[in-house]
Structures
1.
Amino acid sequence: MKTAIYARVSTIGNGQSPEMQTRELREYCERRGWNVTEEYVDIGVSGTKDSRPELNKLMADARRRRFDAVVVWKFDRFARSVSHLLRALEEFKALGVQFVSLSEQVDTSTPMGKMVFTVVGAVAELERSLIVERVKAGLRNARAKGKRLGPPSLHLDVAKIGRLRAQGRSWRAIARIMECSAKSCRRAGQEHASDGLRLPVDKNPTSALAATS
């Protein structure tokens, strides 16, 4: 079986060495009769980083089917979080790539390893559901107390917007002056008009622009 090994150390020294990880990973693969065809080692890279050069390369090569299995020394050497680990494992599963974590003794090529992966995935799904339910409960509680949800209201000077619009300025130009989005300016102008108050119209917008320049 063509195998890739992945190792990571966040710092060099203080007893940390990628060689210790890679040596044990090679020995494990040798015992199983797996052929190590690729090695990926991130050195001096924190496990919390979203992007790691060698890990990114490993994932890209997995999509090219350059190996059949990935072996890591420990979960936290590979993934930055449980959700990251599960996403990677789901992708490996779709690609037909096995995953082994030496320290945790998880091997998705075995029935026991597949069971562990299923349990971990179920726990993660439960955690996501609980978070969603807590958020919904918080929103319901806030509404019951009469709290207004969403971003604070934006109070715009609609008369000023009307004057600027009458001068022939675009909604984007008005938005820059009012320090808001063009959409907010347009909505304020439309609400102003729907209240029966027409936006002022300058019969000679060119002269008005000149007067304000």
2.
Amino acid sequence: MAKKPAHVEVYRKRDEPIERLIKRFVKKVKKEKIIEQLRDRRYYEKPADTRNKKNRRIKRENERNRNK
């Protein structure tokens, strides 16, 4: 399941401090999950490992929901 590349653009508003501009940029990057994608793609992962990781995550979430 390949995700399309995310292009994050932030334009400076009139009389806006740079710190606030950076804060908005970081917020958008987190929302688009760009850093998570970077970490996931850093090393090659075999398709079987990806499936196993996904199945373990789903199983763990189901266990949490069952215990509530």
3.
Amino acid sequence: MTWLIEAVAALSGAYALALGRDDGFEHFNLTAEGFWRSFAAIIVIAPLYVYTDRVDALYPAQGAPADFSPALSLLTLALEWIAWPIAVALLTFRTRFSALYARYITVYNWTSIPVFVVMVIPLVALDLGLISVKTAVSAGVVLLMVALWYRWQIARLALEAPALVAVGLVGGDVVLSLAIGRLLNG
């Protein structure tokens, strides 16, 4: 299976999981090879991540435009992309969730693509002058809530975890991302 075919299948699975359907897992390559190949989703995510940082720097919610560094943006993404699987491995080690770790990370990685695509929509509209900063921020908050719910759904289904455990994972993901961003960007 080529990477592109695997990515398209995974996106189909991502949609099914968003609808709460367990059959979405059938679309993912859940082998050891599929686990490692899922990290290649960063190829699609990286330009979206850099674009998001550029737009955020150009159109801050308050104050003057900020400095923007594509290299720093890519470094931040790379650290987040590596740190979260390590954190989850540590959190699930010797728990009943450890058996489903690879499935969770594989699905998490592939579902990052639709999460980023959706999150970039108001920024594109802002960048094109179609909406104001205030509208983009409002839309971004709404889409962030949807993305967090989706991440919760993925954690719950992929790890077969109780709702509260899934909430903890989503919160941990957010905290880790914020900490890495703060560490690198000041």
